[in-house]
Amino acid sequence: MTFRHTLAGPVTACGTALHAGVTVNMTLLPAPAGQGVVFVRTDLGGKQIPARYDLVSETRLGTVLEQDGVRVGVVEHLMAAVAGAGLDDLTVSLDGPEPPILDGDALSYLALIHKAGIKSQNVARHAFEILKPVRVSHRDSRASLSPGAGTYYEFEIEFSAAAIGRQTFALDFSAANFAQSIAPARTFGFLKELEALHAVDMAKGASLENTLALDEHGLVNPGLMRFPDEFVRHKILDAIGDMALAGAPLLGRFQGVRSGHATNNALLRALFADSSAFRRVPFPGTAKAVL
Q1: What integer pLDDT is reported at residue 203 of this predicted model?
Q2: Paired sense of beta strands 126-130 and 278-282, if any
Q3: What is the distance between the alpha carbons of residues 46 and 286, in angstroms, rounded to a whole number?
Q4: Cα–Cα distance for residue pair 219/169, rounded to 1 Å
Q5: Going from the N-terminus, what domains does the chain have, and what CATH number goes with each?
Q6: Is 232 in contact with 167 (CB distance < 8 Å)?
Q7: Which residues are catalytic?
Q8: pTM for the predicted model, two decimal places
Q9: What is the three-class DSSP state of 182?
Q10: Is a pLDDT exceeding 90 seen at residue 195?
Q11: For the segment 11-70, what is each residue's pLDDT rounded down to a tens digit?
Q12: Gap between the Cα atoms of 130 and 252, Å rounded
């Protein structure tokens, strides 16, 4: 039998929120078996927001959770690390509107999880097995889940920017493969959009130290790159984080073509709207953090 996992102890980090640009203190805490991942806004009297796909209220430049008027933004990088580490139950305490962006990747969150350690809980772990294809599309983006052994991600992007162009990547999901091939991939953005984003209080915490920045000539900070195809790898990172809002691992194949947070969330909503498309099963293996 495979058991649920939580942290062995608390761990704290402090950093800048990607969009709000403010300093945020974050503490990752062990949680009771069966709780799932829950965000707590300590700056708002301890209001709680479960990490669930049906609580996603906004998907522009990040996945935002909202409940009873309380929001937590840009949760996808942390949720990707949670999935990669095989965590099931976790409390995320924040004194601001978003987890700190840290290095703009998921590896920095994995390092925190590794520092805290992982412990087994005396409750069986389960997963959602995909039984038939589920597809969503919007304009030129599309995403699908289909039956398959284990968990598999395949992604394709295409940008007019020469520094990106067309990129594809496929991942047989495991703790080791995630940590080595996906978690280090940083977020990216275009400098020409920055002024407009600042005008609506977004991307205020983006910097040349945590974001791959592009202008009309190419990549502004190439020394920050970890992979030649880092852009598509980060899109898979985002998809893994968005799929983690299912509340349990998904056993099947994810395929995305220019898919973003909105399409990813629509895919989960379509999946769970069709009870014949999935079934709850015992998780077939044990996931451990590998750094």
Answers
A1: 85
A2: antiparallel
A3: 32
A4: 20
A5: 3-123 (3.30.230.20), 127-282 (3.30.1700.10)
A6: yes
A7: 261
A8: 0.95
A9: helix
A10: no
A11: 999 999 999 999 999 999 999 999 999 999 999 999 999 999 999 999 998 999 999 999
A12: 5
